[in-house]
Automatic annotation (TrEMBL):
Biological processes per GO annotation: L-methionine salvage from methylthioadenosine
Keywords: Amino-acid biosynthesis, Cytoplasm, Dioxygenase, Iron, Metal-binding, Methionine biosynthesis, Nickel, Nucleus, Oxidoreductase
GO CC terms: cytoplasm; nucleus
Protein name: Acireductone dioxygenase
Protein family: Belongs to the acireductone dioxygenase (ARD) family.
GO molecular function: acireductone dioxygenase (Ni2+-requiring) activity; acireductone dioxygenase [iron(II)-requiring] activity; iron ion binding; nickel cation binding
Annotated function: Catalyzes 2 different reactions between oxygen and the acireductone 1,2-dihydroxy-3-keto-5-methylthiopentene (DHK-MTPene) depending upon the metal bound in the active site. Fe-containing acireductone dioxygenase (Fe-ARD) produces formate and 2-keto-4-methylthiobutyrate (KMTB), the alpha-ketoacid precursor of methionine in the methionine recycle pathway. Ni-containing acireductone dioxygenase (Ni-ARD) produces methylthiopropionate, carbon monoxide and formate, and does not lie on the methionine recycle pathway.
Amino acid sequence: MRAYYYDNLPGDQRLPHDYIPSRPVSVEALKAIDVSYWSVPVEGYQAKIDAIAKERGYKNRDTINCSKEGLKEAYEDKIRSFFEEHMHEDEEIRYILSGTGFFDVRETPSDAWIRIAIEPGDLLVLPSGIYHRFTLDESNKIQALRLFKEEPKWIPYNRSEETDANPYRAEYLKRVTVGA
C-alpha cells in the first residue's frame, strides 16, 4: 500500500495521479481519518483474515473479480459507478488477492483526495460515512475478498446535500474531528 495526495489533474483515472514530487500520506494520517490498514501476505492469508474478521465482527464474505472478463458487459458501467464519489452506511472492507487498483478517500477537514494504491496482501477498511471512490489502475483487473458485518451489501450514496446530512456521515465527522 502506498498513500499520497491525488493531483486532481484531468486525465485517465487509472493513472497514478501523483504530484511531482510526490506528497506521501502516512498510515498514521490514514488512521486520523479512521482508515485502517493491514499487510497480510496472500500465501496462507486465511488464518490472519479470519482472526481480524472475528475481532472486528465480520460475519460474511464474498469475492469480487473486477475485470473485463469478470464483469463482462457491465464492466464499463461498474467502473464508472465505482469512481463516483460516495459513502456507505457500513464499513467497506477489502482484502486484495490479486491485481491492483486505487481507493481515493476524502481527507477531513481539508476535503483533499488521498489516493491509496493497493496490491495483493493489502487489507483496507474504510469507515462508514467517509467519502471515497475506487478505480482500477492500468492493469484493469483486481480480485478482492469483501468482508461484511451482516449480510453482504454494497449500497453507495453519492455525495450530495442529502448525504452530507446522513447520520452515518455526521457520526463519521464527529469521530474524526474530536480534538482537531
